[in-house]
Design goal:
Number of strands: 0
Number of helices: 10
Protein name: TetR/AcrR family transcriptional regulator
Structural class: mainly alpha
InterPro entries: DNA-bd_HTH_TetR-type_CS (IPR023772), Homeodomain-like_sf (IPR009057), HTH-type_TetR-like_transc_reg (IPR050109), HTH_TetR (IPR001647), KstR2_TetR_C (IPR041490), Tet_transcr_reg_TetR-rel_C_sf (IPR036271)
Keywords: DNA-binding, Repressor, Transcription, Transcription regulation
Organism: Streptomyces tanashiensis
Strand content: under 5%
Distance between the termini: 60 Å
Shape: elongated
Order of helices and strands: HHHHHHHHHH
Largest sheet: none
């Protein structure tokens, strides 16, 4: 049976994902070999195939792990006992911060998504759609309550915000003038201003 940790105690799947993320970000998915990933992670090919099955599975997991985190956090914001405007602002800011905190993952995904098989691509799109639908439901809740304007359809508002989020990897720099929280606050405020009745 494959070990779940290496000698230092780090979980093997975590080591593989960290190595794959770094190499995919530096070299690109298509220019990174399985051998390079396992060497960087300090494990065998057998360990990679035990946990992931293929390099493509690693690519899918790079994005899915961030999306799972964001979905859990969105669900918590959406279910909170707070006014809808506050819940939406918290959710809108959080997706910016968590994307910036995982900028390599986001960049890799948007650069390399076309390498996924149609089946895996469909799975990832389904996960992302579930997130967007929950986010849209917050906007629709506020529109029904009269807190948000109905002048712009909720779908378009979602596309507007996530267009900004999905492009963070092309311009955000950790050594830039704004912290992740400041960028998140500005983008969340823009969203709420666009929804103001």
């Amino acid at each position: 049976m494959a070990r779940t940790t290496d000698g230092s105690g780090a979980p093997v799947p975590q080591r593989l994902l960290a190595a794959a993320t770094r190499l995919f970000a530096e070299r690109g998915y298509d220019r990174t070999s399985v051998q390079e990933i396992v060497e960087a992670a300090g494990v065998t090919k057998g360990a990679l195939y035990h946990y992931f099955g293929s390099k493509e599975d690693l690519l899918q997991e790079v994005y899915s792990r961030v999306l799972r985190l964001q979905q859990e956090r969105l669900d918590a914001f959406a279910d909170a006992d707070a006014p809808v405007e506050e819940r939406l602002r918290d959710a809108a800011a959080d997706v910016v911060v968590t994307t910036i905190e995982n900028l390599d993952d986001a960049a890799i995904f948007f650069r390399s998504m076309h390498h996924l098989s149609p089946e895996k691509n469909k799975q990832v799109r389904s996960e992302r759609r579930r997130y967007h639908e929950r986010f849209r439901a917050l906007i629709e809740e506020g529109q029904r309550a009269g807190v948000f304007s109905t002048a712009t359809p909720a779908d378009l508002v979602v596309d507007y915000h996530f267009g900004s989020v999905h492009h963070l990897s092309t311009w955000y720099r950790p050594d830039g003038p704004l912290t992740p929280e400041e960028v998140a606050g500005h983008l969340a405020d823009l969203l709420l201003r666009a929804l103001r009745p």
